[in-house]
Amino acid sequence: MPLRPLLARPGARFACAGDGLCCTDVHALGPLGRDEQKAFRLLLPGALIRYTDPTFTAIRPSEKRQCPLLAPTGCALHASGGPLAKPNTCRRFPYGLASTPRGGRVSTNHRCPCRTLGERPPVRLDEAERSLGDRAGRLWADVVVGPRVALTARRRVAFSTYEAVEADLFARLAASGDPFDALEARPLPPLADTSWDAIGHALRAEVDGSAAGEAFGWFGDALLQLSGALRPSRRARPWAPAFDRAERRSPSPEGPSEVFADWVADEIWSLRWTLCGPFDVARAELVTRYAVGRRIAQTLDARGARPDRAAAEAVMVAELVGSSSLWADVTKSLRAAAAREARAKKRPARAPASARPGESGPSRGPLPGRARAGLRRRGAGRSRAPSRRSGRARRPG
């Protein structure tokens, strides 16, 4: 699939203001390639850490919970050698690139207040290309989308048809500013082999002293609050200094609904959802994260945060969780439940026992032993939580 021409979503805005959140342990500071690892071992012995689940090598955060090369004036590598001196992961953030039949879609992550708060110019494709290219200037895609896109498990359409569906969604989002209306999906849909409460507790178990762990705790709390299983708690916000800087440079706030709608549009535009399933599952997953994000923003509002900042912090948390391997398990469960529901709708209804030939009434005798055991396995016991894996990866014990 082609990567050119590069395409930016209309309305997407970004300019780096140096708020610094991307250089903290709210993200895994990696992965690093082999050559980058060799360079860092020479530059800063002991500065690398090996993560598992998934397995990769990254920069070890300092005691300040940030990159050891982050100086008060910014990245020391960038200052001494320019942007090409930085690891590919650092240089690429917050941009993403999807290869499509139309060209390369440039998207932006919203896990940074430079993207979500304050005056921001439209995304410049020349700047994006410099960030997305490797040291030889070659582009590579995070996502490759072919000529057909799955709208549901049973319906695939031409990419041009998908574009029309997407354009209609964006138009509804722009008109109403309400992702619930635009996504046409309900939050917390049925899951296979687990429950939303179990997922909330699994997310809370990810708290490990890092900023990312605290974000997982915030999301787990809000998810349990949606189901009435938990009251709001007083968790820390270790990412607050970066948002403090963003708020000081943003004297004219925008509406929180604009912050959320901009994020939802970029999540769709990025096409990252195609890695996890069809579009109907993606909309249900995204509307769930939006609902949880709104609950987080309401909690921050109650604690005195400016409304647009509350929404921006909530978006950061929701996007971070959505990029994790734990949430990938949630998406698999959503997909399995949706497929099971589709099969149930397709299966013809059985006639009542009394109406079937050769049967005199509703009583048909006891079920065979294997059938009884199967019913017990499916109907008894507590829901199983997904495996406790996070996208920031677990440090080896």
Rounded to the nearest angstrom, the radius of gyration is 23 Å
Shape summary: globular
Distance between the termini: 41 Å
Q: Which parts are unreliable, with pLDDT below 50 for 5 consecutive residues or more?
A: 353-397
For the largest beta-sheet, the strand count, sense and barrel status come to: 4 strands, mixed
Percent strand: 5-15%
- Helix tally? 15
The average pLDDT value, as a whole number, equals: 86
Q: Which structural class is indicated by helix and strand composition?
A: alpha/beta
Strand order of the largest sheet: 1-7-6-8
Secondary structure: number of strands: 10
Percent helix range: 40-55%
Order of helices and strands: EHEEEEHHEEHHEEEHHHHHHHHHH
Description:
- By secondary structure, this protein is an alpha/beta fold.
- Helices cover 45% and strands 10% of the residues.
- A 4-stranded mixed beta sheet has the order 1-7-6-8, with helices on both faces.
- The longest helix has 24 residues.
Q: Can I get a quick summary?
A:
With 397 residues, the protein is α/β, with parallel strands linked by helices. The protein is built from 15 helices and 10 strands. It has helices at residues 34-43, 76-81, 88-92, 113-116, 125-132, 159-176, 179-183, 196-204, 211-226, 240-248, 256-269, 279-302, 307-322, 325-346, 369-379, and strands spanning 6-8, 48-51, 56-59, 70-71, 74-75, 95-100, 103-108, 143-144, 148-152, 155-158.
